[in-house]
């Protein structure tokens, strides 16, 4: 054994930092356990001794099997924020109310806040960021996007000087699990969703995930941090994965693509002038060699495309008690160290951005169409594409008895033109049914 | 267009921070250009106006085509550190001397330091960390490992509370490029290296890369930051990629593996007791589905395996002027913000670690052997493995005229036992030649 001499022993007094915890569900309980395991290591490395002083829950008398005194539990959430024995507030209760008022109060009192609440940040972030800035204290939220994946801190700090061109992320584990299962087992959407529900990857009511609202809130937070401009969830165009079929998956594979649920944030304006962003969530076909194509199951990943840094990808577990607790704990230590030195991380000043309407964006498209199988049909269909300036890059036609299915991959085209093409195709007598329309990215 | 209202306009005074830059090669020049492009955006977002006050170079009179006044260039490196007009020092000159003394002096003067110098940190880091800690100023070095990949900051901050079990990284772009070319084109090591040299991915003297010393220095820095214990480059066991053959690549693919140049840092001691680490660099066979297996060409990636967070992977460009400059600029903004508020990031207190000698480690192995092709040879060879407690998981035998080549994949075994096996095999009359020995990971 080679003994490595210590650089120096820790001799300074340890600073006590007491935490008020709001909520004690899966993430809260995992945080209490993780902190209990890591408390000594953290104290040795940072000089901060973190302890849980209060835990605000609805039923404080219920036993939770955690290594904290039962007296720490309280039904009085305000005491876990405003109590004199609280130095830092950690919120893992979720939802807008009462979290919004409680965190506002904590910041007003000059107490740093750590939260995992994407919904709150994506709707009332501007008010919370302003309160944190006015008070000069931390508002940290690494766990709100991508679970354990370090994303917010790299965007806020490492890439603050980077000309970020685009951020593309798989930020919802439920939909990534469902689409991965469909791609790998040939399952239908309903089968894959049912399996995700039975494994606990999807909720009984999966709407927020499968319709893209969860990913939309995360896209709003990513846009706000990556570009330093307030973008609320309401500004994000969301399309769910509910229309993706087993046939689409099969065709995607044939064309060399993988279907993934993506959130896209990109600078869309020309150089110079005001910042203009496009922010959207939808399923997308990615080339099999795309860095996000191999992100399988419930894993999350975010690809940052920078003008100087090039492609950066951050990958990991986007959900689950312990992974999320790990991200919360990293923020908590940061906030505690800053609290002990009287400093604070800064969100920076949020500027203004215009949001480009989705029908002005350009993309390549996969379009599936059921048609009558007779001579001249393809010519009639191709004519509609051509008149709307949507150029076809590839197509495959398959007979279905008396009918046929045609699958098109277009070149890049305006969303508006593709919409007009689809509307007109829907009115053609030879078209039995408009099938899936999925954006194709990364080429 | 939807106009999003600004959260608040920036009204406070901008703080001027003046930079002393040591070195102006590829990275230095890229930094000057990137800062010039991003200066206004950074000022708007952080309230810091960064300017380059001095650039210390050997030939200050030489024109460099940069957007700075020629009078900024100086041959007096000490002035670019100690000058009253210098608030922050950025070092991109490389090498141990005079960088070591210059950065020591900067820290002594209470000036934050940003450096990309892995060699200096991996040999004299302890002294520099202590100086930064004593002065209470930043010593930041994101660019020293993984170029543009955010790695040091996530390890230092996001994962400070995480029980890190292992960090496995592809941290040398040259060797990853060479092995990727060999795998994908069937080229020999010499051919692939020649191509890397002609493309500028490898230096004329490639020793530091191909023998693993560059990756070893980075592994030492990763170990120090991930575990908060000083690990010098000299404690890292390094094995190069020079012995990897086209045949090994072919066999790897047949067994479902990819050969990658990895740096491995892991906690090797049992729970409780002193921290014991194993730190090493070598080529390794990874299963094709391993997250690092798809990291191709000159890209870098680091996989962190945490007890709470699970697997986290950070991926991007590990070298090049602009990617490295992007990482330096992120650190520079951080240091400048901290300087303006009188705070500093902290390395934490470095503790002690024992380094486990490599012959005590366990791994699965790929072993290639040229033998005489006659009955009974396999039995004789297998007997040697068995007597040293090295169990065989798979083998393939191929005739080569009168001789044969046998390739083995072992179960996990002690390095020491594998070494003894190889020594005895080398003495067997039926063994013509010991071929490659490559560790197999990730299963």
Describe the structure in your own words.
The structure is a homodimer of 443-residue chains. The first copy, chain A, is an alpha/beta fold and 443 residues long. Chain A has three domains: 15-147 and 323-341, NAD(P)-binding Rossmann-like Domain (Rossmann fold); 154-317, Dihydrodipicolinate Reductase, domain 2; 358-440, Alpha-Beta Plaits (2-Layer Sandwich). Helices cover 36% and strands 27% of the residues of chain A. The first copy, chain A, has 13 helices and 19 strands. In chain A, the strands form two sheets. In chain A, strands 8, 9, 10, 11, 12, 13, 14, 15, 16, 17, 18 and 19 form a twelve-stranded mixed sheet that branches. In chain A, strands 4-3-2-5-6-7 form a six-stranded parallel sheet, sandwiched between helices. In chain A, strand 12 (299-306) and strand 13 form a beta hairpin. In chain A, helix 1 (26-46) crosses helix 11 (321-341) and helix 12 packs antiparallel against helix 13. The first copy, chain A, is elongated. The termini of chain A are far apart. Residues 1-11 of chain A have low confidence and may be disordered. At the A-B interface, strand 1, helix 1, helix 4, helix 5 and strand 13 of A face strand 1, helix 1, helix 4, helix 5 and strand 13 of B.
């Amino acid at each position: 054994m080679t003994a490595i001499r210590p650089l120096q022993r820790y001799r300074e007094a340890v600073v006590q930092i007491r935490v008020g915890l709001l909520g004690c569900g899966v993430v809260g309980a995992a945080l209490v356990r993780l902190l209990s395991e890591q408390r000594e290591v953290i104290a040795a490395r940072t000089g901060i001794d973190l302890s849980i002083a209060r835990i605000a829950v609805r039923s404080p008398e219920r036993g939770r099997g955690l290594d904290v005194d039962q007296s720490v539990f309280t039904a009085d959430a305000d005491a876990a924020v405003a109590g004199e024995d609280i130095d830092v507030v950690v919120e893992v209760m979720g939802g807008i109310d009462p979290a919004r008022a409680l965190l506002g109060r904590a910041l007003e009192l000059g107490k740093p806040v750590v939260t995992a609440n994407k919904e709150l940040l994506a709707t009332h972030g501007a008010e919370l960021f302003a309160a944190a800035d006015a008070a000069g204290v931390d508002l940290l939220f690494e766990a709100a996007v991508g679970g354990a994946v370090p994303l917010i801190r790299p965007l806020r700090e490492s890439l603050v000087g980077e000309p970020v061109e685009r951020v593309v992320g798989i930020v919802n584990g439920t939909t990534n699990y469902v689409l991965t299962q469909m791609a790998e087992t040939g399952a239908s959407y309903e089968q894959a969703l049912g399996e995700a529900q039975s494994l606990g990857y999807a909720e009984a009511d999966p709407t927020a995930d499968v319709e893209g609202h969860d990913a939309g809130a995360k896209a709003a937070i990513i846009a706000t941090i990556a570009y330093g401009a307030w973008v609320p969830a309401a500004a994000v165009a969301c399309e769910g994965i509910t229309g993706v079929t087993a046939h689409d998956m099969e065709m995607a594979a044939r064309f060399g693509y993988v279907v993934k649920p993506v959130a896209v944030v990109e600078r869309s304006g020309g150089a110079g002038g005001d910042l203009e962003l496009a922010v959207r969530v939808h399923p997308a076909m990615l080339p099999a060699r795309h860095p996000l194509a191999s992100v399988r199951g419930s894993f999350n990943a975010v690809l940052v495309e920078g003008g100087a840094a090039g492609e950066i990808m951050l990958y990991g577990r986007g959900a689950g008690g312990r992974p999320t607790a790990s991200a919360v704990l990293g923020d908590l230590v940061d906030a505690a160290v800053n609290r002990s030195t009287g400093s604070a991380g800064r969100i920076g000043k949020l500027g203004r951005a215009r949001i480009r309407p989705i029908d002005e964006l350009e993309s390549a498209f996969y379009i599936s169409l059921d048609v009558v199988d007779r001579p001249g049909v393809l010519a009639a269909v191709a004519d509609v594409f051509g008149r709307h300036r949507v150029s076809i890059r590839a197509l495959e036609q398959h007979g279905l008895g008396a009918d046929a299915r045609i699958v098109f991959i277009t070149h890049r085209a305006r969303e508006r033109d593709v919409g007009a093409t689809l509307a007109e195709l829907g009115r053609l007598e030879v078209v039995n049914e408009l099938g899936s329309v999925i954006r194709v990215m990364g080429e």
